[in-house]
Design a protein that fits this description.
Number of strands: 5
Shape: elongated
Largest sheet: 3 strands, antiparallel
Strand order of the largest sheet: 4-3-5
Distance between the termini: 28 Å
Strand content: 5-15%
Number of helices: 5
Structural class: alpha+beta
Radius of gyration: 22 Å
């Protein structure tokens, strides 16, 4: 992997200062990108993404506060905990989205919408694996009769999966168009 994958997008321009020294300035020469949305749709997309993510985070954390036996199993707790990382990256990407539909550099595109698309897929997979793990725990321990807390956890994580699926679908509907550099 390259040290800086965006280095080829910039050109170093050297100019002389009044004192006779050299001043290096970096000028962007790479391609520009634009979202396939109007200005008001970009704001709505950003707001909707953040609200859905906030709902998902609240539901996901609330499920973690339930003291159910399934969360003591690594195949439930591990994906549950790891799912917090894509939530963080999804929030970082959403906050980096511009407020309007302007030209974005390659690094801006990758750190906003690119990060959101990757994190939404990872989040959907991890929350889904946590639900599958909990269902597996219920099947393996069906004879215990201790299903109250397990079903509460499963219901909350089911809501989290639904929210993650909506976020994933919302991210996939947004296209990125390449605009050639001038």
């Amino acid at each position: 992997m390259a040290k800086n994958k965006y280095a080829d997008d910039y050109e170093t321009v050297v100019t002389r200062s009044e004192e006779g020294g050299e001043i290096e300035t970096f000028v962007y020469r790479g391609d520009y990108f634009q979202l396939s949305l109007e200005d008001d749709q970009v704001k709505r997309f950003k707001t909707t993404s953040l609200l859905l993510l906030a709902f998902l985070a609240v539901v996901h954390v609330a499920a973690g506060f339930i003291n159910n036996a399934g969360m003591r199993q690594f195949f439930v707790s591990l994906p549950y905990v790891i799912a917090l990382l894509p939530m963080y990256y999804l929030a970082m990407g959403a906050f980096r989205l511009p407020g309007d539909n302007r030209k974005m550099r390659r690094d801006e595109k990758d750190y906003s919408i690119g990060r959101m698309k990757t994190a939404s897929l990872a989040l959907l997979i991890l929350v889904g694996v946590a639900v599958i793990g909990e269902a597996l725990y219920l099947l393996l321990n069906a004879g215990t009769g201790q299903w109250g807390l397990e079903l509460q956890f499963l219901a909350l994580e089911g809501l989290a999966v639904a929210a993650a699926a909506v976020i994933f679908r919302l991210q996939r509907q947004v296209g990125v168009e390449k605009i050639e550099a001038a």
